Amino acid sequence: MIKGILYFSRTEVGIILKTEKIDSIPGLISRLETDNKGYKGSIWYRGHSDASWSLIPGYYRIENAPPESTLVKRFKQSAAMLISVAPKDSFDWLFLMQHYGVPTRLLDWSESPLVALYFAVSQESEKHKNEDAVLWSLRPSELNKNAGINDAEEEFFIPSFEDEELMNYSVESIRQNARNQMKPLATIATRNNERIQAQHGVFTIHHNEKIAIENVGDRSHVIKYIVPKDQKPIIAKQLELLGFTKFQLFPELSSIGDIIKGGLI
Question: Which pTM does this prediction carry?
Fold first, then answer.
């Protein structure tokens, strides 16, 4: 159960980040009920197997990265003969690249805290077993207010990739306006594959500004839930009992093979 520990941490920006500790699923539920009481907007979640990792997308973690447009061209060149339906625009190419592990400006989030928690404590994160994990909680519409996205007619508005607000975040616009610096945005996309649907997937997308999402504005849009390393296998077992398995979240043939192989070893 939750131990009632609440502490705060500071970073170089000098503004307090709300950080809490959880050690079980019942404890998480209790904490979420308290932290979100009265809030009616959407809440998204992301799990990291190492609590020291920031909310920075893969592309901006690469030193001396080539232009993003170059990565897209390389991916298109090799992927074209392997896909039956070509993506309709550069955002769709980014989704496909993200799906297959190519670093992009996207960060995957889930509308389910338990899905995100699975990624923080699952066996796939075994190489980080000696590190505390983290479950990030994000209020997407509050993040977007830092980028000037605030619809007077819809209090908790979140744009989609088809909306005008996202045009400045396209691959083409980023390439043409390299000196522009805009804040990251939370956005929704069509769930056009089984994995995104199973994981209740949503996204944040960065612009040219290489800022961690937890350091944007006054940081009130995020909460960091630390999972102590010794509790990770316990919570993983609790998730398994609730039916959160690799096949549920990755409904693909390779998942079936991994599950069968795991049972034989």
Answer: 0.87
Contact 55, 140 (CB under 8 A): no
Q: Residue 36 has which token pair?
A: 């979100």
**CB neighbourhood size of 8 (10 A):** 10
Q: What is the pLDDT of residues 195-224, one digit of tens each?
A: 777 778 899 999 999 999 999 999 999 999
Contact of 107 with 202, CB cutoff 8 Å: no
Distance (Å, whole) CA 75 – CA 68: 11
Cα three-residue angle 137-193-43, rounded to 5 degrees = 15
Our CA angle for 74, 78, 79, nearest 5°, is 105
Token pair recorded at residue 173:
């616009």
